[in-house]
Amino acid sequence: MIPGYLSFQVEITKENFTAESGETFPNTAVVSFVVAGRTKPIIELLGFLEEEDIYKWIDEGKTINLDQCYISRLSLENYRVSRGLDKKSVVVIENFSARNAFFDSHQSFDFTHSIFKGESFDITSSWLHRGAFNFDSAVFECKLVSFHDVKFSDYRFDFKNVVIGNAEVNFKNAIFGTGDKDFQYTEFGEGDVIFANTDFGDGDVSFINVDFGNGNISFKVTRFGKGKVDFHYARFHSNAVSFERAEFGSGRVDFRTVEFGTGKVNFNRAQFSDGEVSFEASEMKAGKFSFKRVEIGKGNVSFEEAVFENIDVSFERTDFGIGNISFYKSAFKSMSFRFCHLDAYVDLRLYKCNSIDLSNTIVRDIIDLNPHEFDLEVDTIRFAGMRLIGRIYINWKKNHVKQLITSQEDSDERMRAEQFRILKENFSLTGQYEDEDKAYVEFKRHEAKADLIDMNEKHKINLFWTYPLHWFKKALFDKAGLYATSPIRVLITMFSIFIFFSLLYVVLILTNSGDIIASVDDSLSVFARSFYHSAITFLTIGYGDHFPYKSIRWVSSVEGFAGLFLMSYFTVAFVRKVLR
User: CB burial class (10 A; 0-12, 13-18, 19+) of residue 570?
Assistant: First the structure.
């Protein structure tokens, strides 16, 4: 046909027309197309057959070959009326073919309650200028159903309640108009279903309750317009399902309660406009679900209560746009958001998930992991490399944060330290100061281990001094006061050190290794003198009424330094708590 024509005229002549297939028609349709920029119309010659002649072929069970024909009327409703049949009487059609045909009718092209038999139903490369197509309750028992390269009109396309056996269904490169496209309750069979590079136009597209059979399903590079796209209750099986690089318009995209079966589902590089996108309560039992490099506009995205419990789902490098994202009460085996842009509220209060990978994400709003109504069964969450501009709502105890990070088998100590540091800063921003302290302690512990490993990997000889230094720092900064996050721990440490030195003085005096001499008359016992001297030394009071002798001089110097250090340590820890 002639693309981009402004108008056309048809003249039916009595001259025979022979199609390329060899079929001869008693009439010729002379179609004059008016094209912009041309002074003369473009003439196209097509075959023409009266409607009654087509009905006679049906009566006789002949092959219906209308290739390269101008078809102005073709309605099984009219056929039944002319034969006195019931409105829902089944009509059998053999090998229907209308390739490169031109459909133009003020009525609907009606194929309802028909059975198509033979090799194929084929209207490849045909042009539907005017008239709706209605296949309601049709049955295809042929091997091929082809709408390949068909240009549909702006009228409704009705393909609901259709049953297809083992045929391949091909809508590749088809172009629909603005009318609604209705595939509700259609049952595809064992053959492939191909909508690759199909343009559905701006009308609503409905695949509600469709059973896609066991063939491979391709919506690759398909374009949906401004209307609603609805796959509600659709069922896929063990087939491969591809929406790769599909473009969805501004209407709502509905995959609610879809059963994705056990195959491979691919939404990679798909583009969603500003409409809502819902996979709510969808389900997949086995296989793979890929949602990589997807671009989403302003609409909200919902995977609420989705059941992908045995599925690894990848959202890597997806731009979720500015709409909210919800995975509330959903279940996944694993989820990867690596390198994603999360610019709006993300509800990650999942019911169950083995691991969530948030590494290298850019978070500008809120990620909500804080459980309320139920406990989150999440084993591992990776935060490495996250650019946290927004907030993460997470609870150290309820979310088992320490386990979420330390359970990462493929993370080294440096990566774990970095993740605890990110959460430490996040807890500070959200006012969770107790959780901030816990995260800070874990950050320092893993950082210390990472430093130890790095030093030992440089030179093996470092083992002789790095390990003693590591354990000394661990005792001094970690065990003594949890890196200045616990004043109580520092007080306990201070008291323990005081007791230790007091008892050490007693031992030294009793073994004549040293003594504590009073500068004034003093009747204190050995124990009393030891504890008193230890107290004034530890607290650096220094009254001068008692002074050390022999080896106790050196021990007192050490205790004085320990006391000075621990009192300063306590002051830092205490002030840190009070100021917050």
Answer: buried
pLDDT at 35 over 90: no
By DSSP bridging, strand 27-35 and strand 5-13 are: antiparallel
More confident residue, 374 or 368: 368
Residue 565 domain-assigned (yes or no): yes
DSSP annotation of 478? I
Indicate whether 529 pLDDT > 90.
no
Q: Name the CA radius of gyration of the chain, rounded.
A: 40
Helices 487-510 and 552-579 meet at what angle, rounded to 10? 170
Q: What is the DSSP letter of 461?
A: G
Closest CA to 326 of 382, 387, 369, 263: 369
Residue 179 lies in a domain: no
Q: What is the DSSP letter of 67?
A: T
pLDDT of 574 above 70: yes
| 201 three-state secondary structure | coil
Give the whole-number percent of the chain exceeding pLDDT 70: 99
Q: Is residue 101 part of a domain?
A: no
Between vectors from CA 574 to CA 541 and to CA 433, what angle results, nearest 5°? 170
For strand 377-382 and strand 352-357, is the pairing parallel, antiparallel, or unpaired?
parallel
Phi first, then psi, for residue 428 (nearest 5°) are -65, -40
Contact 339, 358 (CB under 8 A): no
- Note whether residue 90 is domain-resident: no
pLDDT for 547 equals: 83
Amino acid letter for position 456 = N
Into how many domains does the chain fold? 1
Q: Which backbone phi and psi does 461 adopt, to 5 degrees?
A: -65, -20
Q: Is the dihedral of CA 437, 443, 446, 448 positive or negative?
A: negative
**The domain spanning residue 541 has which CATH number?**
1.10.287.70
- The pTM is what? 0.86
Q: Which residues, in sequence order, are CB contacts of 252 under 8 Å at separation 6+?
A: 228, 229, 230, 275, 276, 277, 278, 299
**Alpha helix segments (H runs only) across 319-462:** 401-406, 413-429, 433-458
Q: Pull the structure tokens for residue 163.
A: 């049953």
Cβ count within 10 A of residue 507: 11
Residue 493 sits in which domain range? 487-579
The region, left, alpha or beta by phi > 0 then psi within -120 to 50, assigned to residue 233 is: left
Taking the alpha carbons of 530, 532, 538, 543 in that order, is the dihedral positive or negative?
negative
In sequence order, the 6+-apart residues with CB closer than 8 A to the CB of 492 are none
